[in-house]
Specification:
Elements: H1 6-13, H2 16-25, H3 34-44, H4 50-63, H5 68-96, H6 100-104
Helix pairs in contact: 1-2, 3-5, 4-5
Amino acid sequence: MTVDYRTAGLTDRQDEIEAYTTLQTDSPYADLSPRSRLIVTYALCGFANVGSLGTQIGVLSQIAPGRGRDVSQLAISALLAGALSTFASASITGLLITDQAAFTNPSNVS
């Protein structure tokens, strides 16, 4: 399976909607197998984007006003941890689902 990691990079800079649109409409992704599309979909649905990072800093700084500096220092680590956990979830999906057609249409399984 060959996956272009530019789509996963879109979620870091923009949001998931832009990445999903790119996955559906751009020509480099037209020939992905259903299993590959499923794995990429799992890799895209996470909280590792700058918008979520801003929300996290804002909310946690309001909850603990005296710890705003600590929250800001840990923000990049939280972004990386979110990306790694999302990609781990996509990897586990790839290990568990080996036949996308059988998974989505169980009546065809013999």
